[in-house]
């Protein structure tokens, strides 16, 4: 493998050489190179030094600790500046804090929501995981969630030889009463849910029911797909409004 050389000039810091296999890394950081003043460069320099360090000799009296210490100090310095700026904005004008921190997070949140809604809207039965079993219990349960402490009454189904509870959300409450009449304990049903790996990246829970069959379809996937129209609309609306608010705040506070 060819030798790798990285040169950053600084007369106050002598050249360092580190061996890792057949690669040679030469580090010569100096004042003229301003990359070292950025957090990314500091992290990169720290990574290079750690990769090239023989940890068996890191506590040796002859080991030059400045080689690893300086990047750590630089990273700490940048983190300190970031935290200082954050708390300065926190106690400053609310619109500036909203613009710099809240609006980007909200934009990512609703973008994630839009992606989840579009994926759920395009679901078909082959995309779902089918679970069959006898009904051990079926019931509605009161749940309190959200910052507003909203009350929900989802429908849950418990199958024999299955530890999980399968949920039909409160937004489909119009179908709950019919399902309570059509399903009895001991009935064999087929439940379609998302795969566990997919649920980690999308809104909702792994145990959310997308379709429920007995002898016929009792709760259809089409109902779930149609419910996504409203969510898609509101996600798009927020994604349009957030940049507008960002621009208005930027015009009012041009120096921030």
Strand order of the largest sheet: 7-6-3-8-9-10
Q: What would you say the CATH architecture of one domain is?
A: Beta Barrel
Rg: 29 Å
Mean pLDDT: 75
Number of strands: 10
Shape: elongated
Low-confidence parts: 1-37
User: What share of residues is helical?
Assistant: 40-55%
Strand content: 15-25%
Largest sheet: 6 strands, antiparallel
Question: How is this structure best described in words?
Answer:
With 256 residues, this protein is α+β, with helices and mostly antiparallel strands. Among the domains are: 16-79, no CATH class; 127-230, OB fold (Dihydrolipoamide Acetyltransferase, E2P) (Beta Barrel), CATH 2.40.50. It has helices at 39-51, 66-90, 94-121, 173-182, 196-199, 221-252; strands at residues 16-20, 23-27, 129-140, 143-145, 150-152, 155-159, 165-168, 188-193, 211-213, 217-219. The protein has a six-stranded antiparallel beta sheet with strand order 7-6-3-8-9-10. Strands 1-2 form a two-stranded antiparallel sheet. Helix 1 packs antiparallel against helix 2. The longest helix has 32 residues, at 221-252. It is elongated and about 65 Å long.
Brief digest:
By secondary structure, the protein is of the alpha+beta class. It has helices at residues 39-51, 66-90, 94-121, 173-182, 196-199, 221-252, and strands at residues 16-20, 23-27, 129-140, 143-145, 150-152, 155-159, 165-168, 188-193, 211-213, 217-219.
């Amino acid at each position: 493998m060819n030798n790798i050389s990285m040169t950053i000039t600084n007369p106050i810091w002598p050249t360092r050489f580190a061996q890792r296999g057949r690669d040679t890394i030469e580090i010569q950081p100096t004042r003229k190179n301003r990359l070292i003043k950025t957090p990314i460069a500091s992290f990169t320099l720290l990574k290079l030094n750690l990769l090239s360090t023989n940890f068996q000799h890191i506590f040796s009296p002859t080991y030059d600790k400045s080689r690893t210490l300086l990047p750590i100090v630089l990273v700490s310095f940048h983190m300190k500046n970031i935290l200082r700026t954050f708390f300065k904005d926190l106690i400053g004008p609310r619109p500036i804090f909203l613009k710099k921190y809240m609006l980007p997070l909200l934009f990512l949140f609703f973008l994630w929501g839009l992606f989840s809604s579009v994926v759920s809207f395009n679901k078909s039965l082959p995309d779902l995981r089918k679970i069959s079993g006898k009904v051990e219990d079926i019931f509605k349960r009161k749940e309190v969630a959200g910052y507003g402490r909203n009350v929900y009454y989802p429908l849950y189904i418990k199958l024999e030889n299955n530890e999980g509870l399968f949920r039909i959300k409160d937004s489909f409450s119009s179908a709950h009463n019919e399902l309570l009449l059509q399903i009895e304990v001991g009935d064999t049903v087929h439940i379609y849910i998302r795969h566990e790996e997919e649920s980690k990246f999308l809104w909702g829970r792994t145990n959310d029911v997308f379709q429920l069959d007995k002898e016929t379809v009792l709760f259809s996937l089409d109902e779930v797909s149609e419910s996504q129209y409203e969510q898609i609309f509101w996600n798009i609306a927020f994604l349009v409004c957030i940049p507008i608010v960002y621009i208005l705040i930027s015009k009012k506070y041009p120096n921030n």
